[in-house]
């Protein structure tokens, strides 16, 4: 292996390789789209990704205990993890789609199909970034792991947590190939699910005076939860947090006075908020009304059968101005295309909720997909942007190591 050439020469080689690999990259993405891979059912998509990682010549290929597809290139001191998830949201009505969701179609320079923008286009970007990196055959003081992640749609960060905490792969930085339209993302709001419960006394509905309705006790609790919105924590970029009662449950006995009632509260959080601080805040309000609050548990089973259950708590995160990871992302774009992209935040949640929000690993977003097509019936990714994203992921380790 040779030392890296001057940056201008390296960039020229990367552009040439991105073009040379582009047809293979498109075929790989089409194959992924054709595989139904709902959360927990990613086995075939993982196997297809492993096949591609072997074909491009990764130094090590395999799955971890959570069933993520993994490929490694290099064995330097600084470890980078490229993350894009293979699972998709579920299709509710195929008749609404302009093309069958599992039949990839190229139209107007974009590939259409379920998961193209969330996040199989990202998988094709990082895998072929690795393909270019391997074809360069250059030494560098870095290790790059490429991860076709699982479970993100229903439990973002759970599979990544397993890789770090169960399998011992802790990167120095994480790059997420979610939808950014070739710009950078530096953070996201967090989210969690709180369950608030009231209790009463059951009685036959024909004699309601003998009971105490937990449902009626819940009414002032719901109103109090809604009033809290005006005083939730604020952030200069994300604005104010929010919470909404999204579900109400009770005993399935329509001829009885309900002895309990529980609501689910969807809370959108600012970076720095913790489970303890949120429960203390909500508990102080609902406790006065005789209710209790807890963070709900989320059951999670991988496609390999492993249980990864955990709290339904997904912290927010934010990279401050001047962070070296942002600087490296800007420098990579500048070297490739002569311009610096916008730097923004995501409105949705990603695996960064674990890497940055929980584990404190610097995390940056860059992907070819556009947010407007995420979870939409016109799901698609621009193929020219797909090629550019591969070039970004090929050059980034060199720029990041050099700290231009």
Query: Hey, roughly how much beta strand do the residues contain?
Result: 15-25%
- The value of Rg in angstroms is 23 Å
CATH topology label of the largest domain: Aminopeptidase
Shape: elongated
Uncertain parts: none
State the domain count. 2
* Assigned CATH class of the largest domain: Alpha Beta
- Per CATH, which architecture of the largest domain? 3-Layer(aba) Sandwich
- Spatially, the strands of the biggest sheet line up as 1-2-6-3-7-22
Tally of individual helices: 10
What's the CATH H-level superfamily name of the largest domain?
Zn peptidases
Largest sheet: 6 strands, mixed
Structure, briefly:
With about 400 residues, the chain is α+β, with helices and mostly antiparallel strands. It has ten helices and 23 strands.
Write up this protein.
The protein is of the alpha+beta class. The protein has 2 domains: 269 residues, Zn peptidases (Aminopeptidase, 3-Layer(aba) Sandwich); 109 residues, Alpha-Beta Plaits. It contains 10 helices and 23 strands. The longest helix is centred in the first third of the chain and has 27 residues. It starts with 6 loop residues before the first helix and ends with a helix. The model has no long low-confidence stretch (mean pLDDT 96).
